[in-house]
Design goal:
Phosphorylase Kinase, domain 1, 6 helices, 5-stranded antiparallel β-sheet, 24% strand, D-amino Acid Aminotransferase, Chain A, domain 1, alpha+beta, 2 domains, 7-stranded antiparallel β-sheet
């Protein structure tokens, strides 16, 4: 069970395989398959998290439907892609999106509303986050005076690299960079307000966009526990490291193992797999307001 759907395979088709997702290309559309793979510190672990891909797909679909923003989703039915005859689609149900092809904008559109992660580390040294000056006296997990846009390059492998707005503008043009900044902050603010009503804090997130016939299209996954940092509001306290619904639980476990991060990571114990799945499922239920369909 723990190794379920680590890699998808459709006979006769070639996938572009990412850390946690496989993408199949057709004439005018793509088939996104969210697997149960999980990555940490730029390594894909040997054990997957059961139903993780379905959680991410269900959460993304919820937000795509809720947000008043053009997006790339055509269908959640894998049969709507021109699959080879006789393809067994059952393993793909619940973890697939058939989407429109777009010209992908090569920028990660990151929005931060709270001081956490790499932003907190930088702030302690320079009172900035990604070069943006912030007020003095902030503590870990503090809410920022207003959300900030901190773009990054899309790395094919390894870590994405933070870049300034000026660098973004030089890469994709000032007009498009400005539009993406304003749209990203608007989507984040809308989602954060909703999440707060559900008793969740959306600390930060990243969006990806594409262009289709000159229109900006929201693509990839959106506002999932993998692309966002969610905290339960009832356990939130500035100055403390917040409980998180994302894969930080796995990272924290890895830090206790003595792993050197330069060789294949150790195999996750069943207990860690089970608890990680529970966190993903809980996040899905809280965000969507519905019981997870495969729970």
């Amino acid at each position: 069970m723990a190794d379920a759907f680590l890699k998808s395979s459709l006979p006769g088709l070639t996938a572009r395989t990412g850390k946690v997702r496989d993408i199949y290309e057709f004439d005018d559309r793509l088939l996104f398959i969210a697997t149960d793979r999980i990555s940490a510190f730029d390594w894909v672990l040997s054990t997957g998290i059961p139903d993780k891909g379905r959680v991410l797909t269900q959460v993304s679909n919820f937000w795509f439907n809720r947000l008043d923003v053009a997006n790339h989703v055509l269908s959640l039915d894998p049969s709507d892609a021109p699959l080879p005859p006789g393809t067994d689609v059952e393993p793909l149900v619940g973890r697939s999106m058939v989407v429109r092809k777009t010209q992908v904008v090569p920028i990660e559109c990151v929005v931060r509303g709270y001081l956490a992660g790499s932003g907190w580390k930088e702030y302690q040294q320079s009172q900035t986050v990604c070069g943006i000056a912030l007020p003095s006296g902030l503590v870990l997990a503090d809410r920022l005076p207003e959300p900030i846009f901190t773009p990054a390059t899309k790395a094919e492998s390894g870590h994405d690299e933070n870049i300034s707005f000026e660098e973004t503008a030089s890469q994709i043009g000032t007009e498009l960079a400005t539009q993406l900044k304003e749209l990203s902050i608007e989507i984040y603010s809308t989602a954060a307000d909703y999440a707060r009503e559900r008793g969740i804090i959306l600390a930060d997130t990243k969006f990806e966009f594409g262009l289709l016939d000159g229109e900006i299209i929201l693509i990839d996954e959106v506002l999932t526990p993998d692309s966002s940092r969610y905290w339960p509001a009832d356990r939130y306290a500035p100055g403390q490291s917040p409980f998180s619904f994302d894969k930080q639980f796995v990272r924290d476990w890895l830090e206790t193992t003595g792993w050197d991060k330069n060789s294949p990571p150790p195999k996750m114990p069943d207990e860690i797999v089970t608890k990680t799945r529970e966190k993903y499922v809980e996040a899905c239920t809280l965000i969507t307001g519905q019981e997870f369909e495969w729970a």
